[in-house]
Amino acid sequence: MLNTLLDQIEIFHIMGTALDSTNTMKLDFSPNNKTLETIDLGNTDAFNTYVFGILEQSSKTYGIGGYFEHRAIYRRSEVFATNEEDFRDIHLGIDIWAKAGHPVFAPIDGNVHSFKNNVGFGNYGPTIILEHHIEGKSFYSLYGHLALSDLENLEVGQKIGKGELFCHLGPFPENGDWPPHLHFQLMWDMMGMVGDFPGVCSQRDMDKFQKICPDPNILIGFK
Fold first, then answer.
1. pTM of the full structure
2. What is the DSSP string of the chain?
3. 156-212: per-residue pLDDT in tens?
4. What is the CATH number of the domain that holds 182?
5. Domain count, the chain
6. Domain assignment of residue 195, given as a range
């Protein structure tokens, strides 16, 4: 459905430039990446060194990936802790890893639905959610792990035009204490939430969230 809605719309590059194999590489944070077992993921500086070491070695500016990826990195934080069968380790968005301070642009026109500093180790940190309306349909886009200053002077309902620079990748620890990256996610339904929305789910809830959260790559266009 979202493909059809966006067919006639020119989309602005969310990081200000096209993301492709010349400047971007996929990063694997699934249990298949055994290197993760050798890293103290609870130490954000060590985690940061790992992520940006890979990018530097590959001469890439951006790392990308994660839509519905089964991830091995969430045990670093109690934010995701539940009973084992409900442990939230399925990633609902796409992460774009880049240096702190990197600008983020609105891919299409929208309005500020809500914003919040979701504090806590491993949480989103500063978060902005935009609401979009196309041909009578509404959906939402979430931008997490931002700079705290991005929340200053924002107002609910504020128009954010396509191509507008409206936020930046935040540094740790203010970004939820992660290596700098953008968590970008789409939702058909906010489920009554304001300034926040689950970015990961349990395997038990995958079917539910696949219906709510379409693939964000439709607005990123990574090839």
1. 0.93
2. -HHHHHTT-PPPPTTSS--STTTEEE---STT-GGGGGS-TTSHHHHHHHHHHHHHHTT-SEEEE-TT-B-S-GGG-GGG---GGG-EEEE-SEEEE--TT-EEE-SS-EEEEEEEEE-STTS-EEEEEEEEEETTEEEEEEEESB-GGGGTT--TT-EE-TT-EEEEBPPTTTTSSSSSEEEEEEES--TT-SS---SEEEGGGHHHHHHHS--GGGGT---
3. 999 999 999 999 999 999 999 999 999 999 999 999 999 999 999 988 899 999 999
4. 2.70.70.10
5. 1
6. 2-219
